[in-house]
Amino acid sequence: MGNSKVLLYVLHGAWDSQSADGVMVLGVSVDIEPLQKRLDEIAESKAGEFVEMCGYIQEEHGERYYEAVNVSGKYAKFYITEHYVELSESLMGEISRDMEKLDRSRDVEEYLRNLYDGGSVIPWVHEYMDGNEEVMEEILQLFGKAEDCNTPFNTTMDIVVGSVIKSLRLDDEKLEYLWEKFGDILIDDDECILDDFMGFECGTHREIVWRWFDEHHSKGVVHLMLGPVPEKIVCKKCGTEVRPEEDEELRNEYPYYCPECDENKYSFECEGGVTDEYKDIVPLPGCQQL
Ligand SMILES: [Zn+2]
């Protein structure tokens, strides 16, 4: 494989408003059209986004250039130029490796889709793996190690994907990832989901999906909705939020101070509480409490 040449078009500009000047590459493309479109936009606004010119402006606009000058000497000039860029052998190698990787990830995606359609993968596993870059990276790496010319491609795929699927456990971290994905699913006015999600069909009420999350997350769905619930420490006697004692010596015995009672407090005189803004949240019937 030798070196290879590519023709690139570059749109660049230079301007001077006398108080400020600049030079900038505005676009690089193998396709000249988007750059010409951009050049036309610049011409239309008389390069207003770069230099504000008043008075008479002398303009010239061609397919690959735009120039504007005014009487006080302010100017803006834009050109599209052609450049042949040589791609080195190592860069070509990198590109073809990337293409292979892309090709391979398409195969994996298709394989996963077929598994799911055939009912061989449970819905959350499919949802978790689908579009997950980390998982894909892991599969591709395993593939690289497992592949040899004697094993048929499909067998290697079975082994690699199978072992990744087997290693997945539904823990809080995965539930949090799935919850994020669930956040992208739109709902209608009746709070029903407008797309299939994790085996729940389009039209399912979202509370049904919430319940699924509630059952599986160790801290319940409220935790997923609100994130970690901030705790405050309150005085058992009056319910006021206490402050940490600032005096170092006092702190050994009385870690808190209650401003309402105006007293130093032992830790057993205080307790953790849920902050007011979370107190009013009523969980779904049957769901875990805060
Ligand atoms: Zn108190």
Can you tell me about this structure?
The chain is an alpha+beta fold. It folds into four domains: 4-87, no CATH class; 89-168; 173-225, no CATH class; 231-274. The protein has helices at residues 32-44, 89-117, 123-129, 133-146, 153-167, 172-182, 206-216, 221-226, 248-253, 276-279; strands spanning 4-16, 21-29, 57-62, 65-70, 75-87, 231-235, 243-244, 256-258, 263-265, 270-274. The strands form three sheets. A five-stranded antiparallel β-sheet has the order 2-1-5-4-3. A three-stranded antiparallel β-sheet has the order 7-8-9. Strands 6-10 form a two-stranded antiparallel sheet. Helix 4 (133-146) packs across helix 5 (153-167). The chain is extended and about 80 Å long. It starts with a strand and ends in an 11-residue tail after the last helix. The mean pLDDT is 88. The structure holds zinc ion.
List descriptors.
290 residues; alpha+beta; 4 domains; five-stranded antiparallel β-sheet; 40% helix; extended; binds zinc ion
